Every structure is written in C-alpha cells, then in structure tokens.
Amino acid sequence: MKNSLKILRAQNDWSQEALSKKLEVSRQTINAIERDKYDPSLPLAFKIARLFEASIEEIFDPEE
Amino acid sequence: MKYEKIDSEFIWKKPYLKRFIAGMVGYGLMLPITIIGKKMTVNEPLLILLAILPMIPFVFALLAYSSNFKTMDEMWKKIHAQALLITVMVTIATSLGFGLLQVVGVMKLFSVFFLFPFMIFVWGICFVYLAKRDKIL
Hints:
- The complex is a heterodimer.
- Helix content of chain A is 58%, strand content 6%.
- Chain A has five helices and two strands, in the order βαααααβ.
- The longest helix of chain A has 10 residues.
- The termini of chain A are close together.
- By secondary structure, chain B is mainly alpha-helical.
- Chain B is built from five helices and no strands.
- In chain B, helix 1 packs antiparallel against helix 2.
- The interface between A and B is medium-sized, with 14 and 12 residues.
C-alpha cells in the first residue's frame, strides 16, 4: 500500500526514531511502512492519522 | 558494513525476557538431572517424573514467549509469526517424509527429542531470512 508517511514526517522535520517514539512502535516498523514493505494495523493507521491530523485515506492509498 | 541498532525493547519486554531466560536456564539445569537420574534409578514412576522434570521450566519459558508475543511491536510480531508458520510447515513436511520412510523401513526410528532443536534451527533461519528480506536486520 502506497503512503505519504515519509513526506509527512519530513514536513514535520522528524526523524524515523522520533516518529517511532511518538507512535510507540519500533523504528523498523516506520522504515518498513515508508518503504511500502509493511501495511500497518488499523489501530496504528488511526494513530498515524491522528498524529498528522489527517484522514487515513489522505495518508494511505490502497491503489497500487 | 553498517549494522543498524535494533529496538530490542520492542521485541522483548524485560519482565518476559527475564522469565524466558529463567525458564531456559531451569531447563538446562534439569536436563542433566534427567540424564543422570536415568542411569541411577530403575523405578519407573520415578523415571517418568525425572524425564518430564525439564518440561516444567521449559513450559514456563514458552508461556513467557507467548505473553511477550502479544506485546511485541507489530512489525516484529509479523516476522515472528511468519517464521513460526514456515517452521510448522517445514516440520510437518519433514516429519511426514521421515515418517513415510520409516513406515516402509528404509529409515531407522529416531527420538522425537530432536524435533525441538530442529524447529529452533529452522525458526532461526526463517527469522533471519525474513528480517533481512524486509531489510530490518
């Protein structure tokens, strides 16, 4: 699943480490999501959306 | 070669890790008791008790792993689960193959005790492969 997590993170000037701490997940999870290697669980997707004050659809695109 | 720092606290929570290590150390300590006890006694009920003695700390370690799995970071949980699934499939296929060879008599019977280290070995290979594949190791 494509996503704009990397762009959103860059806009906020956060490192992967900083974002992982805010979301209470490992840095590897953030890295894998950003590289489209891993689709986050629904609770984590909601957490990401809430953190960036956006809807899940604005961040994650199910279209390949 | 650059090695990335792994967020170990997302893989093993300290209380569960302590319980797991305690269980495995207990298993390691009780295993010689079983082996020595086998040579020292012929009393069957006592032999059974001695034989299953290492199982108690081992089950304790497995329960710690199970509890830890529930709290694991979701990316690591996915890799652990995938490695476990492949391990189960490899074990089923291998035991079926060996079992059939034993049924037709071209392979000698061997102890199922070796199943545990075999599964740990397969799981380890799968885990490293999957983590490398997803570039998180």
